Backbone:
């Protein structure tokens, strides 16, 4: 049972829609790095469904690492590695302990960019360019503002609430995120509209 572990209702709501797209994006097997794993609900859901993949969960907040490990342990999965602390702004990943000695076939990051300082976007893109294996992809999920696309009122209100909590937070403009990716040598390859006015974006080496 996972009743005593931290739980995100939003992660439960969006995990199946995201998995549906991952099945079409990812190859049959590989190694995945999750950035900002949070409670760990996404990584255990993906690991259970994509059992030929091995997943490395991470989070910048060290207090979340026991929760991630707990979700993996209590769901009986053996393809989820021990969670590591990782701040994407660090020049070497992860932030503590031995650096990664491998490259990853996929790097997945959900709902981080709007609840973190803007410089985390550049850090994510630089790190992904460094740690993706040849042919690998960076997949991000969350809300974005897009030039020429009407903005849902729910996202406007959400952005206002985020900036009220922390002026460094806020929904990011898609073209600015893509510009950071370009500077790191990545290109936006796929854009998938998702429920609740979110987007799933796929970046790869340009």
Residues:
């Amino acid at each position: 049972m996972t009743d005593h572990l931290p739980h995100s209702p939003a992660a439960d709501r969006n995990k199946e829609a995201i998995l549906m797209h991952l099945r079409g994006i990812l190859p049959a097997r590989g190694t995945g790095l999750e950035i900002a794993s949070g409670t760990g609900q996404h990584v255990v859901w993906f690991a259970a469904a994509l059992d030929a993949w091995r997943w490395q969960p991470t989070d910048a907040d060290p207090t979340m690492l026991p929760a991630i490990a707990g979700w993996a342990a209590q769901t009986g999965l053996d393809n989820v590695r021990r969670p590591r602390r990782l701040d994407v702004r660090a020049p070497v990943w992860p932030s503590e302990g031995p650096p990664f000695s491998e490259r990853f076939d996929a790097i997945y990051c959900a709902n981080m960019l709007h609840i973190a300082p803007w410089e985390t976007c550049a850090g994510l893109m630089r790190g992904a360019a460094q740690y993706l294996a040849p042919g690998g992809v960076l997949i991000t999920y969350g809300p974005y503002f897009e030039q020429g696309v009407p903005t849902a009122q729910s996202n406007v209100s959400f952005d206002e609430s985020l900036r009220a909590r922390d002026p460094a937070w806020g929904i990011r403009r898609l073209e600015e995120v893509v510009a950071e990716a370009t500077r790191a040598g990545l290109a936006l390859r796929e854009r998938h509209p998702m429920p609740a006015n979110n987007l799933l974006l796929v970046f790869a080496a340009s």
Notes: The CA atoms of residues 145 and 151 lie 7 Å apart.
